[in-house]
UniProtKB/TrEMBL annotation:
The lineage of its organism: Eukaryota, Metazoa, Chordata, Craniata, Vertebrata. The gene is Sept12. The keyword Nucleotide-binding applies. InterPro entries: G_SEPTIN_dom, P-loop_NTPase, Septin. Keywords: GTP-binding, Nucleotide-binding. This is SEP12 protein. GO terms for molecular function: GTP binding. Residues 1-192 form the Septin-type G domain.
Amino acid sequence: WDPIIKYINEQYERYLREEILITRKRKIPDTRVHGCVYFVPPTGHWLRPLDLEFMRRLSKIVNVVPVIAKADTLTLEERAEFKQRIQEDLKTHAISVYPQEDFDQDPEDRALNNRIREKIPFAVVGADQEHQVNGKRVLGRKTKWGIIEVENPAHCEFPLLRDLLIRSHLQDLKDITHNVHYESYRVRRLNESN
């Protein structure tokens, strides 16, 4: 985690240096990390101590979104059980993942974010080939049982993850980075300077 934490802090430092200039740019280039997608191996058991420690450290400085990688290696039942165990592990170890309950402003946001929190960690399947399914070209992975479609919510939760990160919550990710994670970094650095 050290190289990742170092990189995130370097981006905060770069932004801070621009921000404290007497004659600063109107729009400071924002290279800060607004979200970290943390891929959990599909063991089907509990989170490994390494995963817990990694997410604990990262969640203090960046928005962390846990994802089960290669979710097609688990049956639907195994996947549901694994998700539940991960949610329990996160709660037991007080690891705050995005979207954090503490930042839900109004009841509408809370309801939407509660539905998202129920899905965490997102179970995704990666693919880089298109296949013909019912006369349509779909991105997916071919197995001996059929084709796992990346865009099909019945097969994979990638569309939910994409919508969270790019469509519905992009501005919220940026706001939390600026108002919580970066602000915490900024206060710490300015206190060190004094």
